[in-house]
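Working notes for the structural subgroup meeting. M.R. asked for a predicted model of this chain before we commit to crystallization trials. I am recording the input and output together here so anyone reviewing the notebook later can reproduce the run.

Input as submitted:
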Amino acid sequence: MDTIFEQDKHMMTFIEGIEKGETDFLLGVDVPTRVYKAKFEKNDEDNFVLKFSVPESDDFNAEYFFSKPAVLFVPHKIQILLLNTDALRFTQTINEKGPQEVKVTYKSFGTEADPSKWKNSKHCACIRYSKEAFRYTDMSLRYDFTTDKNQQSSWRNAFVLRLAGDNNIIVSFEERMAGGDAYCVFRAQKRMDIALFEKVVEAVRIVYGLLAGYCFADRGYFISDYTGEKPKDRVPLIVRYHNRDKAKKHKYPLLDKTHYVDDDHKQLELTTEQMNALVHLFVKNEEFARAAKLLIDASAIDGTSRGVLAVVALETIANQLMQKGPQAKLITDKAIASQLNYELNKGLKKIKEKVVADDYKKLESKVNSVNNLPNAVKLESVFEQLLIELDEEEQYCISCRNQFLHGWLPKNKKFNFLTEHELVFMVSQRLIMLSAMLLLKKTGYSGMVNDWGYTEVVKLRAIGEGRPLRHVGNAHRKV
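Returned structure, recorded in token form:
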């Protein structure tokens, strides 16, 4: 790998070595005098398998690895901690004569048991992905610079995330390697808390999943090469690997990487400043991050479930935005609204003794919220606050929220030229698009997004009619 970051080469060498299982380890368990020769390697599920032989005379069973930790080590070089909570499977080959072959599968491992060592360290993360499933150029982003040693190269594969206190994180994509794998590498330029670093990694995963159609697996190596304030506190290498979730890929990226003859491509690209703003948004607000994940999940499923998830995401985003903006009311004149509330409560009190106490509380709650806007109107008002003008079709899509949430199919005589499947798809995709537009608008993005609700219906109809789709792009919606 030809890169300006020499540390990345060492990391890749370490990763390659441990995954191939080339190292001869000793396995220590919480049983006196028992130490076994062992191997440790990655399997096809991206978990790690511990392999060792147990003498016929040893009474050893699966319960140990699911109740107690174990340690792999090479004297004076490295130790790997295997926690019982990370053990997934245990298999044991029982031979009539000779040693028993044992395999234990783990989803995670680490080289440091003390969590405080991660709190003030210089961190790096290596997230593997498949070049067949995703290329970093699938993301319509203006990358900052190249990690190639030839700094005059026009090839760009990296950008900088700027955090508080000039604590920058460089994100680069390393695809120039043999085989089908590539890496997204995160490298902090200063010491920082691991919790913040992990949030940044998670936020980048979400941005790519939402805008490029590929959410990297929550799987990778977190490496720290320095801890503590003084040289004596230096640690050779602290590594943690985890395999929590698979990659998510869908066919509906919101940013278009295609180059059009009649469109300014910059209107379809995210700048690194906007990327920074989105990452900050997801790091600081978990509700925004959770809603964006729902939009990724919605894009990857079919039917009414897509619409349900999109509605939940839209309402989550809108509620967060409404908390920070003025609360719209049906009656905006405060004096009239106050008088209405007074008269309604006065009338309600006249029947207080005639209804059950619990029912009275419910009625009182309804009276006090009578001046609130209907939920569909509230959602539309959020778009108004961000100066996003909704057309009639988009207003209809938002009005379908209740139908999705109650398991009904959207219906509208005005769109009777669409089949039931096409209508559900169009409304669902428009809800995803509109939700993402709110997030993008918050970051200052004013370009265009893909309108898959329209694009997919038109393209599928063209295919059904035998019309060619060569040189046919996507429909776009200006944010």
